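SAMPLE LOG
Freezer: B-3
Tube label: C17
Construct: single chain, 442 aa
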Amino acid sequence: MTRIAVVGGGISGMTAALRAARDLRADVTLYESAAVLGGHANTVVVDDPSGPIAVDTAFLVYNRLHYPRFVALLRELGVEDETCAADMSASFVDDDRDMRYALLRGLGGVFCQKENLLRPAFWRIFLDLAAFRRRARADVRADRIDEATTLGAYLEPYSAAFRDHFVVPLTAAIWSLPDEHVLLYPARAILAFFENHGLLAGRSGAAWRTFRGGSRVYVDAFARTFGGTLRLGEKVSRIERRPGGRVIVRSSSGEASFDHAVLATHADTSLALLAAPTREERALLGAFRYHPTTVTLHEDTSLLHPDPRLRASWNTVRRRGVLRITYLLNRVQPVATRRELLLTLGDAPIRPEKVLRTFSYAHPIFDAEAVSAQRRLASLDGGAVSFCGAWAGHGFHEDGVVAAERVIAALPARLPAAQRASSWTVGSSRTTFGTPASARSR
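STRUCTURE (predicted):
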């Protein structure tokens, strides 16, 4: 039986392990350095008088229309029925310029600031939005946005109010990155994501879903159904390729020999694990940089605007030149408590007594170098080693699933001919590899 090692227990690693074990009938060992699986699917339990409350701290929602492979995975794991509609309301507050409004919170949210009714800059936001949607959709479909064009350059024809009070905070919230990075991002990649998720058409709202009980629902289902070996809390330190197509995985418990290894970690981590990376691996994997983000689960509502009409699922608040993003988990997920549970990205003046938990996550920076490298990933042939991750797409769950399925679909052709003939059997009708909307622009 073909032996495959999968390194990394996030969405890509779990998908790769499941596909290799179920669809290719391989003997799979999944290594995860943390004590639990999931990666960004990290659900924690908050004690409450009403009983334990499960909330997510990184991966919160998915889009049913535009995440077809992830939805298929949920169905395969038998947990799609454990999801529900997500509230996608958004609040934009700029205390420095005295501008604030909310979307999908009714007219009271849009016009909560009476001064906006007589403020031309406010109305210009929505006029520019209509023009921006038409132009961006046409440009994306015609593929006429130069790869070197930044989002800041693309937004030059529009007002500063539209840029600073809509596009920048929205994009920063989606990618969980500081706003100073946003305008330097390649416009082509950003707008392709907007189009693929229905944001340019303004019709994606009803398709967003979240999990009852948190995203651990699908992680636990994977752990129950995975037929291979799980090595949790076991850190891999080195990947060595040997003559004859063998690969040695060195971990905290020793070393093991495999026919193939799938590195489903961040691109920079994968590169660091390789004992002897090729020039192409150094160039392509090394093109991806990551931004470490501190995430705080807390109850300090002073970070939000006091007006309840401006308390939405996604809240962006600019104060003293700093843009902060806070999720009101009570609105995003079905949280049964009167306490307001908040999740804030980055450093923030949160009162210590209000802090529940603190986490650190790393998000890929999709700058021009990274986007250029993505277009050449198909040529990356590591012999007995393959690479996958959400970084190969837009950085989201669907991209992680697609990247893993592509790697597993290509594996039989990468094995030595004798081994393919003698030991590899593709025997599952579940092996259906498609290209979702979120990856077509790639």
